[in-house]
Write a structure and sequence with these properties.
The chain folds into two domains: 31-115, Leucine Dehydrogenase, chain A, domain 1 (Rossmann fold); 141-263, 3-Layer(aba) Sandwich (Rossmann fold), CATH 3.40.50.720. It has ten helices and eleven strands. The chain has helices at 8-30, 45-60, 76-88, 107-113, 125-132, 141-152, 172-181, 195-200, 245-249, 262-281, and strands spanning 4-5, 35-41, 64-70, 94-97, 161-165, 185-189, 204-207, 225-228, 232-233, 239-240, 254-255. The structure holds NADP nicotinamide-adenine-dinucleotide phosphate.
Length: 282
Amino acid sequence: MAAQLIDGKALAAKVRAGLVDEAKAIAAKRGFAPGIAVVRVGEDPASKVYVTSKKKTAEELGFGSWEHHLDATVTQVDLLALVAKLNADPKVDGILVQLPLPKHIDSNAVLLAIAPEKDVDGFHPVNAGNLFQGRPGLVACTPAGVMRMLEEIRFSCSGKNAVVVGRSNIVGRPMAALLINASATVTVCHSKSDVAAEVRRAELVVAAVGVRHLVKGEWVKPGAVVIDVGMNRGADGKLSGDVEFEAARERASFITPVPGGVGPMTIAMLMSNTVTAARSRG
Ligand code: NAP
């Protein structure tokens, strides 16, 4: 029997709907809604699409939302000065610097400059460290969205063999930490791993590689849950995932489609992080 699809679009809408009342309660208590500032540098077309979509979602939820668009020639000093200003602005709960930044800017220095309590992307080492130590903090949005999906299908991670393919700071590593915290037995694969062998014994597979159809359907253990984070744009402009979807669907119990799976969850979790940041700042 074909796997059930996990509808990320519908779940993201549910997450967003749940945030509206929370945002209203915060605004009633302190006099202003949760707010997010997004910094975009230069004219990267994908960054423009992402930032517009984040801003639109924030506005729909009644959040404060500010876009700071800087010229590609901005100096690191001026960019750091903007981050410092946003750190000090009481109306700003969340700061997001859209990556990639131009080559002359040290992205790490900029991400490190964001106050950890406003780091709604969850990329600051303080937040990444808290996650690895199982302490509260702001969690990277895409892996947080995956956990929300697992909760929705009532998948209990405890004692399960989970394989994460990819070890990036944005997806693979925080995903592994979340699964460890949820008591899964976690294996992290990368470009030097025997991915087929690891995936074959996984009850949960999270693919975050960026290589179209790297994970073959025949590797999927019957009944496994398959979460495909990959977003690969083909020459025809179509998006496809890291998992061979049709073949994997024949063996899995649940699977996420691409598009319409993990993608929509990421922005919803960014908004959720903004509410968390606002709540914890009081
Ligand atoms: P990344 O930084 O490029 O990391 C890719 C990881 O995959 C690396 O750890 C790399 O291993 C590993 N890898 C590459 N080729 C491999 C192979 N043949 N076998 C096994 N592992 C291999 O990518 P990322 O930022 O994590 O993104 C991964 C994918 O998720 C991309 O398609 C991206 O577009 C997508 N994404 C989606 C969302 C969303 O909202 N849905 C958000 C973020 C990312 P090494 O470390 O050994 O090089």
